[in-house]
Amino acid sequence: MQNGPAVRRRKLGAELRTLRTGAGLTSGDAARLVGWHQSKVSRIETGASGVKPADLRLLLDAYGVRDRHLRELLLMLAGSQDTGGRHRWWHAYRGVLPPTYRDFISLESQAGAMRTLETTVVPGLLQTAEYARAVTRAAVKDLDEERLDTLVEVRLARQDVLRSDPPLVLSAVLDEAVLRREVGGPGVMARQLERLTEAARLPQVRLQVLPFAAGAHVGLTGPFVIFSFPSTSDLDVVVLDQLTSSLYLERKEDLKAYSEAFKTLQFHALSPEESLDYIAGIGDGA
């Protein structure tokens, strides 16, 4: 378990090592091609140090990497703001957002797909402004109105990933408790349920409800997010949100365990069509 930047360095290094060996080069060969010392290549591949976007381009050229999407993803992981991908808008909020939240938004903006289990609140990407305000006010104590407004603004800005080209593909399993918990009052909750219904009809969103009748399930240990990236599954990561930080799991066995858990949750949850009816029933007071 590591923080976001460390995970990205390790994953970037591992991918570069795979690309180098695929090109039939040793680390010494790569160093000579780009005019570096071999130790620099080794430090980058082990994640011990980061790599500047300009240096990364040199490596990718030396390895014969022409895939535009893969280059953009790797450049984003290296910290480039000029990749042709989704705009790094959250940098404007550096003074307001804690580093762990910025890391999460960064991964969210880079990912091609996101699978999430939510057991307490509606996923941030599907929240209305008033629901987001109520959740944020409850979760973060002693907020003044200006900072609260900013955090809600950030929450809504994150939702642009669902409207980008290509959009983030979102698969969400919601425990029934998410729908039953009255956040912000009856009116706020009614409009939030309407928003979920609208979002569930988007082609890039798959929304399923896990009803109380399903009984105990693997997700009782808590919510989680799995980010998947275009071009390579080696960059996938699991994020576990904690009260004051986030944990990132990158080992293949962890990814496999959480992926299988999510499949199990989807199997026991209502189908997307049944989930729409279920949400409508709760909205009608059922």
UniProtKB/TrEMBL annotation:
PROSITE patterns per record: HTH_CROC1
CDD domains assigned: HTH_XRE
One Pfam family cited in the UniProt record for this chain: DUF5753
Span of domain HTH cro/C1-type: 16-70
GO MF terms held by the record: DNA binding
Alphabetical list of InterPro entries matching this protein: Cro/C1-type_HTH, DUF5753, Lambda_DNA-bd_dom_sf
Protein name: Transcriptional regulator
